[in-house]
C-alpha cells in the first residue's frame, strides 16, 4: 500500500510538472503570436505606473522613487508609403502613450515642496524608414490636422482625447474658460507640428507631468505658465497649479530634442 501511494504521489508530481511546462509553453506562444515586444514593454510600464499612482505622494514621496517605473522609450519605424496610414500610426502611438501614462489623471512622480519640476516620460521614438524619407520629405505627413480632424473613438478626436482633461482642469477653466483642445496655444506649447518637416530627424512622444508641491518661486516650466487669457499674476497662479488636483500635464509630440531638455526637469528614458 505504501509503495502504491508513493507511486500515485510521484505520478501526480510528474503530471503537475508537465502541466506547468505545457502551460508555460502555451503562454509564451500566445505572447509571441499576439503581442509584440512593444506591447509587452508598454504593459509592463503601465502596471508600474498603476502601482506608483496608488502610493500617496503627499507624505510618502520616497516610496514612489522606490517603485521603479520600468519604462523604456520604444522605437517605432514608419514603413508604409501611404501618408494617411503613416500619420495614423503616429496618432495611435501617441494615444497608446497617453493611455499608458494614466491619461493625465494620476500622480506618479515625487513631490518636491520647494522646487518646481516637470517630469517627462519619453514613450516613443518614431523614425521613417530610410527608403521612404525622400517621399515624405516632398509629400509631408500632416500631424496636427490629422489629430484635430480624426476621431480617436466615437466621442472625441485625438486632440480632445489628449487635452480634454487639461482644458477642463479647474485651474485652467478659472483662468481661461474659452480654451479648447485644438487651440493654437496647445499646439505651440505641446510641440505638435503642422507637418513632419525634417524626415532625417526622429519624432518623440513625451508625457510631461508638473510637480504638485508648493511653489516658493514665481517661475514655471516653459509651456505651462502662459495661458493667453489669464489676468492674474503668475506669482500667485504658480502655487495654485502645483497644488492642484488632478495633476497638470502635457502630451508633447516633437522633433525638437532641445524642447524636451528645456521643458523637462527630469527625463525618463531616451534610447541611444
What does this structure look like?
With 272 residues, the chain is α/β, with parallel strands linked by helices. It has helices at 2-34, 37-53, 61-66, 83-100, 133-138, 143-149, 158-167, 170-175, 184-190, 234-242, 257-263, and strands at residues 74-78, 118-128, 203-210, 249-254, 266-268. It has one domain (70-268). It contains eleven helices and five strands, in the order H-H-H-E-H-E-H-H-H-H-H-E-H-E-H-E. Strands 1, 2, 3, 4 and 5 form a five-stranded mixed sheet that branches.
> Which word captures the global form?
globular
- In terms of per-residue confidence, which ranges show pLDDT below 50 for 5 or more consecutive residues? 26-36, 214-222, 233-239
- The helix fraction, in percent, is 40-55%
Radius of gyration: 23 Å
Quaternary assembly: single chain
Biggest sheet features: 5 strands, mixed
Number of self-contained structural domains: 1
User: What class, by secondary structure content?
Assistant: alpha/beta
Q: Would you list the SSEs in sequence order as H and E?
A: HHHEHEHHHHHEHEHE
Number of extended strands: 5
| Tally of helical segments | 11
The average pLDDT score comes to: 74
Kindly estimate the percentage of residues that lie in beta strands according to DSSP. 5-15%
Termini separation comes to 66 Å
